[in-house]
Amino acid sequence: MFVRDQLADQNQNYRGRTSLFKDQISRGNASLQLREVKVQDEGRYRCYTSTMRGNQEAFVELRVIVRQPHTEGLLL
């Protein structure tokens, strides 16, 4: 079973911001976590997994919403 990140082929824009839930892979969860999300990360992502049972492909649409910090009652 392949349970590690394939970092050699990783896009430079995501370096140091991704991780797999390795303890969940044996349960069928191949989720990838993206940290420090940026507006530029918004878009359609292709998710591809390959196992002994076969290959699967899915697409995820990531929408990034930027909110202004809450300043009510804040003294500046």
Automatic annotation (TrEMBL):
It is found in: Membrane. GO terms for biological process: regulation of cytokine production; regulation of leukocyte cell-cell adhesion; regulation of T cell activation; T cell receptor signaling pathway. Residues 9-64 form the Immunoglobulin V-set domain. One of its GO terms (cellular component) is external side of plasma membrane. One of its GO terms (molecular function) is signaling receptor binding. It holds the Pfam family V-set. The keyword Signal applies. Keywords: Disulfide bond, Glycoprotein, Immunoglobulin domain, Membrane, Signal. PANTHER family: BG-LIKE ANTIGEN 1-RELATED, BUTYROPHILIN. This is Immunoglobulin V-set domain-containing protein. The lineage of its organism: Eukaryota, Metazoa, Chordata, Craniata, Vertebrata.
